[in-house]
Amino acid sequence: MIAEIGQFTLILALVTAFFQGTLPMIGAARGNAPLMRFADNAALVQFLAISIAFGALTTGYITSDFSILNVANNSHSTKPMLYKVTGVWGNHEGSLLLWGWILALFGFSVALFGRNLPGSLKARVLSVQGLIGVGFLLFVLFTSNPFTRLDPAPFDGDGLNPLLQDPGLAFHPPFLYLGYVGLSVTFSFAIAALIEGRVDPAWARWVRPWTLAAWSFLTIGIAMGSWWAYYELGWGGWWFWDPVENASFMPWLAATALLHSAIVVEKRDALKNWTILLAIIAFSLSLLGTFLVRSGVLNSVHAFASDPTRGLFILIFLIVVVGGSLLLYGLRAPSMKGGGLFAPISREGGLVLNNLLLSTAAATVLLGTLYPIFLDAFSGEKVSVGPPYFEATFLPLALPLLIAMAIGPFLPWKRADITGAFARLKFALLAALVLGGGIYAWRSHTSIMTLFGLAVFAWLFAGSLLEWTERVRLFRGSLGASLKRIKGLPRSAHGMTIAHMGAALVVLGITASGAWQTEHLGVMKPGDVIDVGGYDFRFEGAHDVTGPNFKAVEGHFVASDGGSPIDLYPQQRTYDMPPMQTTEAAIHPMLTADLYAVIGDADGKGGYAVRIYHKPLISWIWMGALVMFAGGALSFSDRRLRLGAPKQAKTMTPGGAREIKGS
Predict the structure, then answer these.
(1) What's the predicted TM-score (pTM) here?
(2) Residue ranges per structural domain of the chain
(3) Cα–Cα distance between 469 and 473 in angstroms, integer?
(4) CATH 1.10.287 for the 1-165 domain, yes or no
(5) pLDDT digits (tens, 9 = 90+) for 387-446
(6) How large is the average pLDDT for residues 19-41?
(7) First to last CA, the chain
(8) Could you read off the pLDDT of 211-225 as tens digits, one per residue?
């Protein structure tokens, strides 16, 4: 019965999404208020219907209802409860249902929190959300139905891919999807603006919080995926330029550009068409990522290989959404005139440079990701585009972007003096030179790129901090006055500083861990000691252990640098359902470095293959990502963004006439 309830509510959600995508659009065109208000109720009904369907599938997993084909293929009665729940989205059908549920959640959120939106704009935004929902619900019901029955039902299920049986997978996909699907709202705002033929600062103010939410969730989702790859796969790395990793990174780059471009529209009424195009591109890249993962064209540890029918459906949907939106853009964008003019050296100019670098970086990643696929499709030749390509093309764009991040906030709007900005950044420049020089004096063999990367970290971190201290006039007056300015400063300004400092910390972790990592790969017997990164690793031996649904060989290492010993217990696990071996790295994270140990197969002579790493400052990569997420969350809490529209204040001009000013 639970599967039939889920099936019925999915059909109900599809019908509701169809009417949500059509009736309010007609109402907005005709100025019919009841039809426009229908969008709010439809968004609520669609959300409730998909919530019931998602709850039904979750119930099937929790109760091990193997009469449901999806549960039988991806669960097992002995699987821990946490992984029974996460198994709901650890497969193709369930993850698409999660996609649809989050899409409905965002649509309902627009209906709930969009009270300040003009009625016609809100109706059109929700209509576009409804039409996107129609496409995905059709895909779920006709090619990827999670409620298909299995008769007769098996005694037990096949189990979940052991690589996905990890606490990180309980949070990584939902956060990533919140970012992916959150960009659908900015897309809907863009399409609604094109239909209305109007983009103004108020529109940009409404778009910014949704962009911030999507960007923040994407940031933490990508970071969680990186952390999962780091400790679960046992390769010792945190980013591999895997096509599926790139599929989430490209929308993040586009969303970052959109976030900054929308500021120019809001503050200066400029870059309107470009901002609309970015909103379309960002969501298009999200859909492209869905196609790459779901179509079966990629082989990856976290790609769902599917039959060609599914891939063809997603490709058609991608063509309709992207092609249709770009066609509408081509027809309507020329009629929208730009706003204020600005000099190349200005805050606006800095944000334009930011957008150019981010967009070009996204294009290089896109090219490297798709080139092997197109080459294979048209010529049958198979090539692999790996880290050397991405490092050679992405880094030259990322480094000037990071340098410009410290300069941009010091530039005033409309026209600026670049020498004045550099003069105010003299302490940041000094910090960069001192750190780079100090590292060179300490380790003269350090490469130029490492020194440059550390200097960029110091430059960006100190520059962001200096800009904030100038805003609050710290050390330029009384402490009480500075505290008052801190309290009065918009949260979005605090959030920008925190996010930029978080980016600097990521640069620190990437640079230090890549430059100074030491490792040992070989065979060790009980009692053997090896020095790695200044730590003595003593191998105490290995023994068999039994988990809830696996058996494992667990090694024991004791690491010491003269202080308290550190115990590390890596495992090599063997799962029965499905049969598979996995590597569980043992990691001891510290602020200064991570100690990382992996145990492999026995050599038959009393020894085991081992990998031991000392990774300086690598934890700062994920701490920096958390700081960036915190900055985005703080900006999102800014009251001005939550209100949506600029507040109008009335003042009296010298002649007595009233003048309206935006807040």
Answers:
(1) 0.91
(2) 1-165, 198-305+328-409, 425-516+619-637+644-662, 525-616
(3) 6
(4) no
(5) 899 999 999 999 999 999 999 999 998 888 888 888 889 999 999 999 999 999 988 788
(6) 96
(7) 55
(8) 999 999 999 999 998
